[in-house]
Design a protein that fits this description.
The protein has 280 residues and is of the alpha+beta class. Helix content is 20%, strand content 10%. The protein has six helices and seven strands. The protein has a four-stranded antiparallel β-sheet, sandwiched between helices. Strands 5-4-6 form a three-stranded mixed β-sheet, covered by helices on one side. Helix 1 runs antiparallel to helix 4. The two termini are 24 Å apart.
Length: 280
């Protein structure tokens, strides 16, 4: 915990949004009242046994595997991975990787996040040697375009996820003093859940993930070198403004792109992260 506190202190911005202008559309108390069975229902004993942590979901392919076959798990919620708390935003990719490591986890590779969302972890499909992020992205998106899906089903739906908030008045370029992080508490939308039991992959905070550009940059294979930044998911005004396609296995353009561990990697008011964990 001391290491996490050090990373937060060094940032100066990272947190749940600028408290002076942030206006969350739902309180933690309202969130807890919306969850059938209460927050305790999110603490799955089987998952805890497999993953070794609360509020994590095993990553596997239900077509050929069982949860016990999983060799990796993913946080059920955006960091701090506690239901009915506001996600941490204003986080650089480097800080996200450092925080995950500090709590005994790691940042997810892009295919792990995508599998958690689509409900089936598939083997890594990175196009190493494609020459550019854009070329690799094009091959990947073409592969999955015909089978696109969202965590909750095969078609995009409004009102299902944490997507009905609004930007702060005067929020233009994304500055800390003009854009509030008007997010919902995590897990407040029980139907915004994948078949593997992962929440809020659409709406609320967008999320940093690692996009490997070479085999030795895969976090899922133990690398700490890591690749380049990939922003996954959508954010809290998605019901009124869809900035990009946003289906589960869709990979974004190289927006604000950098190496994962660059000190100048991107941060903004609706960008957070969640962690993964390798298990035996």
């Amino acid at each position: 915990m001391r290491r996490v506190q050090e990373i937060f202190a060094k940032s100066g911005f990272m947190g749940q949004g600028n408290p002076r202008i942030t206006r969350h559309p739902m309180t933690p108390e309202q969130c807890r009242a919306r969850i059938p069975g209460g927050v305790a229902s999110y603490d799955n004993a089987r998952n805890r046994r497999i993953c070794g942590d609360r509020y994590m979901a095993p990553l596997y392919d239900p077509r050929t595997q069982s949860p016990g076959d999983a060799t990796a798990c993913i946080d059920m919620f955006e960091f701090p991975n506690i239901p009915c708390t506001y996600p941490v935003v204003w986080t650089k990719a480097k800080e996200a990787a450092e925080i995950c490591a500090a709590v005994g986890k790691r940042l997810c590779d892009a295919h792990e996040w995508e599998g958690a969302c689509a409900g089936a972890l598939e083997p890594p499909d990175y196009v190493f040697g494609a020459g550019s992020v854009a070329a690799a992205r094009s091959v990947h998106n073409a592969k999955y375009a015909a089978s696109k899906s969202w965590a909750y089903g095969p078609e995009f739906r409004r009102g299902v996820c944490a997507q009905a908030s609004a930007k702060s008045p005067g929020c233009g370029g994304g500055g800390y003093n003009s854009c509030g992080s008007n997010t919902y508490p995590t897990g407040a939308f029980p139907e915004c859940r994948s078949r593997l039991g992962v929440y809020d992959q659409h709406g609320n905070a967008a999320e940093h993930m690692n996009l490997p550009m070479a085999p030795d940059q895969m976090a899922s294979r133990g690398s700490t070198k890591l690749g380049v930044t990939e922003m996954k998911g959508s954010w809290f005004i998605w019901d009124s403004y869809r900035a990009h396609p946003g289906w589960c296995r869709w990979r974004a353009p190289f927006w604000h792109g950098s190496r994962m561990m660059s000190p100048s990697s991107h941060e903004n008011y609706h960008l957070g992260f969640r962690c993964c964990k390798t298990v035996d």
